[in-house]
Write a structure and sequence with these properties.
Elements lengths: L4 H15 L11 H7 L2 H4 L4 H4 L20 H14 L10 H6 L7 H29 L11 H20 L4 H4 L5 H22 L6 H19 L8 H13 L9 H11 L7 H24 L19 H20 L22 H22 L3 H18 L22 H14 L2 H21 L3 H11 L4 H13 L3 H14 L4 H13 L3 H9 L1 H6 L3 H17 L7
Helix pairs in contact: 1-7, 1-8, 7-8, 7-10, 7-17, 8-18, 8-19, 10-11, 10-12, 11-14, 12-14, 12-17, 15-16, 16-17, 17-18, 20-21, 21-22, 22-23, 23-24, 23-26, 24-26
Length: 574
C-alpha cells in the first residue's frame, strides 16, 4: 500500500518535534546569554542598520577582537522572536544594569527553544526530500538510466529512514537544545533548498530552456547566500551543486566501475544529443555568484581572521608539526561523533583534548585507522554493483565532506577545537549513507537503532536545562577541561556551595596553572570562606608572577589582593 508523501512528512515532523519537546522548558545557558540576552542587536537597542555592521555577538565586525561571525539574518530572527514573545525570563537575574541597558523585559527562553524544535522538525522533512533528489541526480553517473517502480519505492524508503536518523541523531542536541544555535537550523533550510533546486535543474536540464536553467542556477546561488548570512557553512551548497553538475556531465564515476559497466555508465551520463553547453553556463554562473558573494563578505569582515586565545584553542598556538597531528585526530573525533555520539560536551576548551606532541601516540594511530576505514568505505561505494546503495553512499560522501571541509582546518584554522553544533549540516551525509544499511537490517534491529538514538537525544536534552547542568555534564565528560571546571565552579559559587566551587577552581588551576580567572576566583572564594589571609597569600605569591603569561593579569590579581587587605585590615600585617 502506498503511503502519501504528506503523511510521511507529517510523521517525520511530529517525530522530530517530539524528541525535543523537553527542551522548551530549558533556560538560557552558556552562549545564549551573550548572543541573545546580552546582545543589543537582539534586544532592540541597536538599529537594524547596525545589525549588518556587527558580528553575531553584537560587536563591530571591523573590530580586531571580533569573532568575525557575520550572521545578520540569524540575529534579525532572534530580534523578531524577542519582539513577538518578550516577557519575563525565569532563572536569569535582572540587575539594574540590565534594566538600564534594555528598557524592556528580557526575552523568554521557551520561545527560542520552541522555535528551535520547530525548525529542526522542518529540517528533517527537507532531509527526506533532498536525500531522494540527490540520489536521483546520481542515478545515471553510476550506470542506471531508469529505476523500476520497486527501486523507486526503496529509494523513497531510504530517504524516509535518513530523515528519521537525522531527527534522532544525538549530535544535534548541541544545536537544537541550545537557543543560540538556531543559526544551524536557520541556515540548513536555505542550504537544503539550494541543493533541491540544483538537483531539479540537473534532472530537467534536457527538457527546459537554457534561460530557465540559468535562472534556477542563480536561484541556487541566492539560497546559498541566504544560508551563509545565517551561518557560514551554508556557503558549501554552491560547491555541492557544482559537484553534482560535474559528476552528472562527465563520466568520472565510470572509471571506478567494472569494465563491463563502463560503456553502460558512459552512455547513461552522456545520452545522445544531450546538450552540454547549459552545464558549462550553469557552472559559470555558480562560480561567478560564489566569487562575488564571498568577495563582498570578505570586504565586510575586512579580510581578517577571528581572534584566538590559548584557552579556547590551544592547538592554534602549537608547532606546525603538532598542529598536523592534532587536527588529524580532531578529524577522527568528528567522524566518530557523527557515527557513535556517546561522549558529548558543550565545550572542548583547554585541555579537553590535549595537543598531540608526537606521532608515537595511540590517538594518532587511532586517527589513521579511522581515515583508512573512511577510504575503504568510499572505495566500496564507488565500486559496488548495488547501484541504489552506490547512489546513497556517494550522496552521503558528498553531503558529509563538503560542509565538513570548513571544520577540517585544512583551508584555515577555526577558532574552536571541536564544535558539535557544526556537525548539523554534515550529519545529513552520514544519515543518507547509513539509511540503506538500516533499511536492509531486520526490523527489530532498525527499531533498536532509532530507539537508542532517540533515548540518548532525550536524555542529553536534560543536560541543557540550566547553566549548572550543562557545565556539570561537561566536567563529567571531559574532566581535563579547564574552562569547564571554571564555569562549573562559578555555578557552584552562585548556588552557595563554596567548598565545591573551591574544588572546581583548584581543578582548573591544576590543569592550567596560569589560568588567571581561576586563580582570581579561587582567592575570592577563600575570602568569602573567611580565609582572606590565605587568599591574599595565594594571589601575591611569587609563583603566580611566573605562571601568568600576561603580567597585567598578575598586577590585577595583586590589586585584587590589595582590595581585600583594604577591606580586612587584619590581613595588612602580611
Amino acid at each position: 500500500m502506498r503511503v502519501p508523501c504528506r503523511s510521511v512528512d507529517g510523521f517525520v515532523f511530529l517525530f522530530a518535534f517530539a524528541l525535543y519537546a523537553n527542551t522548551v522548558g530549558n533556560d538560557f545557558v552558556y552562549d545564549d546569554r551573550a548572543a541573545i540576552v546580552g546582545n543589543p542587536d537582539v534586544q532592540g537597542v541597536a538599529s537594524i542598520r547596525d545589525v549588518f555592521q556587527h558580528d553575531f555577538w553584537g560587536a563591530m565586525i571591523s573590530d580586531e577582537n571580533s569573532h568575525k561571525s557575520y550572521r545578520p539574518l540569524t540575529v534579525l530572527t532572534f530580534r523578531l522572536i524577542r519582539f513577538l514573545t518578550r516577557g519575563a525570563c525565569p532563572g536569569l537575574p535582572r540587575t539594574p544594569a540590565d534594566q538600564e541597558l534594555f528598557d524592556a523585559s528580557l526575552p523568554t527562553p521557551a520561545a527560542f527553544h520552541f522555535t528551535n524544535a520547530l525548525l529542526h522538525a522542518m529540517c528533517c522533512v527537507l532531509v527526506r526530500i533532498v536525500a531522494v533528489a540527490v540520489m536521483k541526480t546520481l542515478r545515471e553517473p553510476v550506470g542506471c538510466r531508469t529505476w523500476s517502480a520497486r527501486t523507486e519505492c526503496k529509494v523513497k524508503r531510504t530517504g524516509f529512514l535518513a530523515a528519521l536518523l537525522f531527527a534522532a541523531h544525538p549530535i544535534h542536541t548541541d544545536a537544537v537544545a541550545s537557543a543560540v544555535s538556531l543559526a544551524e537550523m536557520l541556515a540548513f533550510i536555505p542550504y537544503t533548498t539550494a541543493l533541491l533546486i540544483a538537483s531539479t535543474v540537473i534532472l530537467r536540464s534536457q527538457r527546459t530552456s537554457w534561460i530557465a536553467d540559468s535562472a534556477r542556477a542563480v536561484g541556487v546561488a541566492t539560497f546559498a547566500a541566504a544560508a551563509t548570512l545565517c551561518k557560514e557553512i551554508g556557503f558549501m551548497a554552491l560547491p555541492i551543486a557544482a559537484g553534482l553538475e560535474i559528476v552528472r556531465a562527465v563520466p568520472i564515476l565510470s572509471i571506478f566501475r567494472r569494465q563491463n559497466e563502463i560503456k553502460v555508465a558512459a552512455a547513461a551520463v552522456r545520452p545522445p544529443h544531450a546538450p552540454q553547453r547549459p552545464v558549462v553556463l550553469r557552472l559559470f554562473l555558480l562560480l561567478a555568484c560564489a566569487g562575488l558573494f564571498w568577495s563582498w563578505r570578505a570586504a565586510i569582515v575586512q579580510r581578517t581572521t577571528p581572534s584566538m586565545d590559548h584557552i579556547h584553542n590551544p592547538i592554534y598556538f602549537a608547532t606546525k608539526y603538532e598542529k598536523i597531528l592534532s587536527y588529524v585526530y580532531i578529524h577522527a573525533m568528528y567522524v566518530w561523533k557523527s557515527i557513535v555520539p556517546m561522549y558529548l560536551s558543550a565545550d572542548y576548551s583547554f585541555s579537553a583534548i590535549p595537543v598531540l606532541r608526537t606521532a608515537v601516540d595511540f590517538r594518532f594511530f587511532a586517527a589513521l585507522a579511522t581515515i583508512g576505514a573512511e577510504v575503504a568505505i568510499a572505495a566500496y561505494f564507488f565500486t559496488t554493483k548495488h547501484r541504489r546503495l552506490a547512489c546513497a553512499g556517494l550522496a552521503g560522501l558528498l553531503l558529509f565532506y563538503a560542509p565538513y571541509f570548513p571544520l577540517s582546518n585544512v583551508a584555515f584554522e577555526v577558532s574552536t577545537v571541536v564544535a558539535e553544533r557544526s556537525l548539523y549540516a554534515p550529519s545529513l551525509g552520514v544519515c543518507v549513507a547509513a539509511a540503506p544499511f538500516v533499511a536492509a537490517a531486520a526490523p527489530a534491529a532498525s527499531a533498536a537503532v532509532l530507539i537508542a538514538a532517540s533515548a540518548r537525544t532525550i536524555t542529553r536534552n536534560t543536560d541543557w536545562r540550566t547553566q549548572f547542568s550543562i557545565f556539570q555534564a561537561a566536567v563529567r565528560t571531559y574532566p581535563l577541561n579547564a574552562k569547564a571546571q571554571l564555569n562549573y565552579g562559578s555555578e557552584l559559587d552562585g548556588r552557595g556551595d563554596l567548598d565545591g566551587a573551591l574544588r572546581a577552581y583548584a581543578a582548573a588551576l591544576e590543569i592550567k596553572p596560569d589560568y588567571f580567572k581561576a586563580a582570581n576566583n579561587y582567592a575570592a572564594v577563600l575570602h568569602r570562606l573567611g580565609r582572606t589571609v590565605e587568599g591574599f597569600d595565594f594571589l601575591r605569591h611569587p609563583v603566580n608572577a611566573e605562571r601568568f603569561q600576561n603580567m597585567s593579569e598578575y598586577y590585577y590579581a595583586a590589586g585584587h589582593a590589595a582590595q581585600m587587605v583594604k577591606r580586612y585590615p587584619e590581613a595588612a600585617e602580611l
